[in-house]
Amino acid sequence: MHSALIRGFLALLAAGAAVAAPQTVRDSDVCTFPRIRRPWHKLDDKEKKAYIDAELCLMSTPATLGLRASRTKFDEFQSVHVLKMEIAHFTGQFLPFHRLFVWAHEQALRDECGFTGTQPYWAEELDVGAFSKSILLDPVLGFGGDGIGPDRCVRDGPFANYTNPLGPGFDITDHCINRQVNDTLTMTAAPTVVEGCMNMPTFLTFWSCIENRGGPHSAGHSGVGAQMSNPISSPGDPLFYLHHAWLDRIWSKWQLKDPEVRNRDMGGNNRANLSSRVPPPGVTPVNLTRPADIPEPLIVGDPGNVTTLNHLLYLYGLVENRTIGEVMDPSKVLCYGYD
Q1: Contact, 72 vs 61, CB < 8 A?
Q2: Under a CB-based contact definition with an 8 Å cutoff, are residues 88 and 234 in contact?
Q3: pTM of the complete model
Q4: Which end of the chain is less packed: N or C, by CB atoms within 10 Å?
Q5: CA 185 vs CA 145, 224, 250: distances in Å
Q6: What is the rounded CA–CA span in Å between residue 51 and residue 74?
Q7: Are 86 and 78 in contact, with CB atoms under 8 Å apart?
């Protein structure tokens, strides 16, 4: 683990010199035909099975990056989220980081497991007040249903037998994927709430509307509950990626309203004051204090405490590090769009 972190540290130092000026787009980054992401509700049975099979493949592919407690490639993504927690939430990089993070997951499905589709998203506005009845929780062509028993373990569907080694929070424990669905806590995915965010005039007001208490970000996490309601180890539930793809779609739609301005509109703090955060209703508080065995995450490319386009998004080897500026327009370097 320590050797991998040292390699990552050296890579960050090398990258720091490269982010002093805006980066140019390399020939290999030119996108001709962006892949189009679609909602789970519109996938046919064959497409749903292909995605589920690819996720199961990640869960059976051995880890290679030496990251904390990771046994599989699926675990490595969760580990990176744990390592980045305190600088990737309630900071300016929240939306760009999760854009690159979900894209990295999509690339792993393709590169490691032969997936030929695109990352689907959960159109949560269609399931407001009724997550418990969503087709995403179907045990056959979905992600399994609600948790049961004292541990709220998911006992049906394709992921019922997966043992996750990370979480809750910063803990390292073997446990099931668990859920505690609460339909009442899904109301922040309502079209009126989303539209309110879409009407925000600047990145700072839009980002705040999305992430803060009462915004769309809390719907998928609090509504699914248990593992998903944990801000640190939530990628242990595969639904995480469909939830954040939905949030990314909302951001992309907001950007497309004025791309010349909004594809460069960035700001916010670099580090959050997590001690002042109060969890949404129904969410069990977790210890947000970084334990001693997790190195403090580095901030590269942004002096002071203001997030800029030069801020380096580093993912500990999951994919190539990128600046925020490089991921602002997903149709370019990342080469995808939405239906």
Answers
A1: yes
A2: no
A3: 0.91
A4: C
A5: 17, 9, 19
A6: 14
A7: no
